[in-house]
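Why Oxysterol-binding protein? Reviewers of the renewal asked for a concrete example.
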Amino acid sequence: MSIIISYFWNRLYPNLFVRQPRESSDTTLIRIPTPPIRPTSSINIRLSQRTFSIDEQLVKSPPGSHTALLASKQVVVTPSISAPSVPEAAPVRDSECVDYDALYEDEVETDVQLESQGSVIKHLLSQVKIGMDLTKVVLPTFILERRSLLEMYADYFAHPDIFVQIADLKDPKERMIQVVRWYLSSYHAGRKSAVAKKPYNPILGEIFYCLWDLPDSDSSEGVAPEGPVSWCKCNQLAFVAEQVSHHPPISAFYAEHYNKRISFNAHIYTKSKFLGLSICVYNIGQGVVSVLDYDEEYVVTFPNGYGRSILTVPWIELGGAVSITCKKTGYHCDIEFITKPFYGNKKHRVTADVFGPDDKKAFLNITGEWNGVMEARWGDGGEVEEFINVQNLDVVKKRVQPISQQQENESRKLWKEVTAGLKFNDIDHATNAKASLEQKQRDEAKLRKDTSTQWETRLFHKEVDDSWTYIKPLRQRLNSSSNT
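Here is what the prediction returned.
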């Protein structure tokens, strides 16, 4: 699944399986009536007494109660019948018989028919206005994918050979073209379903590690010194992601290939807006490709995501202008992700124009579909040739440490019981596992407030321009080793 698709579902349906703690402990006890929604899903979740966010109450309450809800910082919902507190989720079924690693490796996802959920969506749409920021409005989740958003960011490197080849090219023009090729090929990977699915919301402090083997790589290579993934070799591509902020939700991630002397550092957060029959997600942040042997940095930005047909079967498209710029060489690329016109059936169109230093005309024009074939035309009147066909590319499977060897805050270990509940269609178990994670986060947030302790990230630090940078990037480590 493309990264931007994951952004959309994470903002459209963000809060089914994890709720970040609010730093304030102020609460108001009120009774919220049940909205007049007939359940249309076969999923039944037991109600238990726990703290809900204002976001969830806006979904669960009639419009008349919104003023009181928004006036409070946090709402404690008391069920009309007595209910026990949420228990900690026990391992699903017989935990000794569950292969948790296999649950994540199983890529078969069942499509969900969303037409039956129309009454729920209509009720929610009656409570929002066009142009409203959806930060405070949460739609119910009918579509779930069994992995964290941090893991989905790794899809940018599903074709690691295309990425590392940037460093192999001797000419700056060719390097720029290869950066464009990698960027345009990075949005299709990971689609397992005709309907986009929602990843888990990363918890503050959550971390995900993985790596990729490159074709024809030497298995006898040693481990990369002080690399982001301790078990990654010098000829493998390493990746790490961390949830560095909750308000706003910001994820930072970093990838590097030690031998090729190339790295990528990025941070992303999203803001969503209601457009009537669509949802728009603005993807805020940037990424930087660093080619160390040439001291080049390619700054990339990200397109917006749109959720269309939200009353029937939602589908996703990308839209908006993005850029790739190398300040040192002067090469840059203007990319436009084109949304589907009202009349016509062309979807997922993209154009890219690549310029040389001081050029007023592009020397390369690219057109096509970001999830299919893209063609290149070299200069005015030049012949058209295939630039890249992502459907013909082999997705390289990432390698992740077994859950038994992971730290407690690593994504797959953190979410394993939720994943098992979803896989075995045990929604009660998944709900209890989610509630247990929520309560743990609330307790930790309260402790930080009581002790006047600020949250400290582990792998990334915040720069003066509000970007986030990996604490031990490859450039820094190589410079340190050369000075010793």
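The domain at 1-484 is CATH 2.40.160.120 (Porin). This is the kind of structural detail the renewal will allow us to pursue systematically.
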